[in-house]
Design brief:
The chain has about 60 residues and is α+β, with helices and mostly antiparallel strands. The protein has one domain (about 1-65). The protein has two helices and two strands. The chain has helices at about 25-40, 55-65; strands at about 1-5, 10-15. The chain has a two-stranded antiparallel sheet with strand order 1-2. A hairpin with a 5-residue loop joins strand 1 and strand 2. It is elongated and about 50 Å long. The model has no long low-confidence stretch (mean pLDDT about 85). It comes from Pseudomyxococcus hansupus. This is Integrase.
Length: about 60
């Protein structure tokens, strides 16, 4: 999807993303979510949790089993 979002201060931001759901409705829903995140100021500020970081020592047993 590709759209231009105009912020309240007048500046424009082009957003180009792939929708996780490859249907028209899925893409429309994803665009609504992105526009909402832009309005709220949370776009691009997703938090990385502690669970997403894994060390090689933790990963090796998973790989070998």
């Amino acid at each position: 999807m590709d759209f231009v979002f105009q912020h309240a201060d007048g500046r424009k931001q082009r957003v180009v993303k792939f929708s996780p759901v490859q249907t028209r409705r899925g893409a429309e829903q994803y665009e609504r979510e992105l526009r909402s995140a832009l309005l709220n100021g949370t776009f691009g500020k997703e938090q990385c949790g502690e669970e997403s970081v894994i060390t090689l020592a933790d990963f090796t047993p998973r790989l070998l089993t």
